[in-house]
Amino acid sequence: MATIVGAATALSASKSFDSRKLHLPSRRSLSVSERKGSFLVVRSDGSVVHKAHRAQILITNAVATKADSSAASTASKPGHELLLFEALREGLEEEMDRDPTVCVMGEDVGHYGGSYKVTKGLATKYGDLRVLDTPIAENSFTGMGIGAAMTGLRPIVEGMNMGFLLLAFNQISNNCGMLHYTSGGQFKIPIVIRGPGGVGRQLGAEHSQRLESYFQSIPGIQMVACSTPYNAKGLMKAAIRSENPVILFEHVLLYNLKERIPDEEYVCSLEEAEMVRPGEHVTILTYSRMRYHVMQAAKTLVNKGYDPEVIDIRSLKPFDLHTIGNSVKKTHRVLIVEECMRTGGIGASLTAAITENFNDYLDAPIICLSSQDVPTPYAGTLEEWTVVQPAQIVTAVEQLCQ
């Protein structure tokens, strides 16, 4: 279980989901014997093990297949291939089938299918009341979603772009995060707020927002960032089942990422990081799109004789200090790579948490590579200069390991 950083008195006393209540049939065709209480364990090495008669055990430490796996090995593994946005939709659809209180609201989420097609086809299947198209009024429909959560529904509020959710900041901070506490525990707010964000390709400053730095200081809210189709689906399902408000960050450039995921039921933990690549020389902490910049840099570093350990932190609040701490104790060096702004970003909070808890294990100062504190330029060349590139990661590791 990850260590929770910062005050979280507004969080519900219940867990993100109740594993004792988890008993769902497979969505895919299985034999009669396999359907009864079957589930799939995905090991860290990518191997899969089919288990039976233990369907009530939740898979919390499953990790995605490594991105650099060969095409041949991927094709031989069981499961089905999905793009990241399709994995989000599959997770959402499974939860809507399972629980009639799950509903979706947002701009163009209905018959248009969402700006990135995450909700495509859901309005036809579930009707306009469960997949509700709203006016262009983020403060209104976010507030409506919070009210719906208070009365027993489990709404998923989609922001067409994460930057637009700044219009609903009052509802998210003063209502969504605090009502469980300010009501003396009378109300739970099981809501998911999700949408595309991050620096795209020439989307301009207003459509290139990274709001994780804005929302991290709000008590009572959990934040997760998906980076693969596997964890996108698993985190979506976990967020919907959570009794706490969860903000799910999706990166606009990762929607068309393809991966083979299991046919059977699985749920990822909202509070666990993912070990992407074990190593010995330096711990590289990252999330979302920067995971792929880091893995690109890792190939260069290996060729130069370095052995980096790469961790996708996934849980932006709270941090999984158990996984992070064990890595720091092993490598004694930390590099943080993020797309968030340097001032007040996730990297700054992570640096503080590591310094407070594991300072005695560090052999070198923590290095944090972040986006520059400037509005994201529209020009493509300038846009690249504001975001961390693989060459900078290689240089930083070489500096740390001197």
Topology:
Layout: H1 32-35, E1 39-42, E2 48-51, H2 71-76, E3 80-83, H3 84-98, E4 102-106, H4 122-126, E5 131-133, H5 138-150, E6 154-158, H6 169-176, H7 179-182, E7 192-197, H8 212-215, E8 222-225, H9 229-241, E9 246-251, E10 258-261, E11 274-277, E12 282-286, H10 290-303, E13 308-312, E14 315-317, H11 321-331, E15 334-341, H12 346-358, E16 367-371, H13 380-386, H14 390-400
Parallel strand pairs: 4-5, 4-6, 6-7, 7-9, 8-9, 12-13, 12-15, 15-16
Antiparallel strand pairs: 1-2, 3-10, 8-14, 11-13
Biggest sheet features: 7 strands, mixed
For the record, what CATH class of the largest domain applies?
Alpha Beta
Proportion in helices? 25-40%
The percentage of residues in β strands lies in: 15-25%
Low-confidence stretches: 1-74
β-strand number: 16
Written account of the structure:
The protein is an alpha/beta fold and 402 residues long. It has two domains: 19-261, Thiamin diphosphate (ThDP)-binding fold, Pyr/PP domains (Rossmann fold), CATH 3.40.50; 274-400, Rossmann fold (3-Layer(aba) Sandwich), CATH 3.40.50.920. It is 32% helix and 19% strand. The chain has 14 helices and 16 strands. The protein has helices spanning 32-35, 71-76, 84-98, 122-126, 138-150, 169-176, 179-182, 212-215, 229-241, 290-303, 321-331, 346-358, 380-386, 390-400, and strands spanning 39-42, 48-51, 80-83, 102-106, 131-133, 154-158, 192-197, 222-225, 246-251, 258-261, 274-277, 282-286, 308-312, 315-317, 334-341, 367-371. The strands form four sheets. The protein has a seven-stranded mixed β-sheet with strand order 5-4-6-7-9-8-14, sandwiched between helices. Helix 3 packs parallel to helix 9, helix 5 packs parallel to helix 6 and helix 11 crosses helix 12. The model is unreliable at 1-74 (pLDDT under 50). Keywords: Chloroplast, Metal-binding, Oxidoreductase, Plastid, Potassium, Pyruvate, Thiamine pyrophosphate, Transit peptide. GO terms for molecular function: metal ion binding; pyruvate dehydrogenase (acetyl-transferring) activity. This is pyruvate dehydrogenase (acetyl-transferring). It catalyses: N(6)-[(R)-lipoyl]-L-lysyl-[protein] + pyruvate + H(+) = N(6)-[(R)-S(8)-acetyldihydrolipoyl]-L-lysyl-[protein] + CO2. Pfam families: Transket_pyr, Transketolase_C.
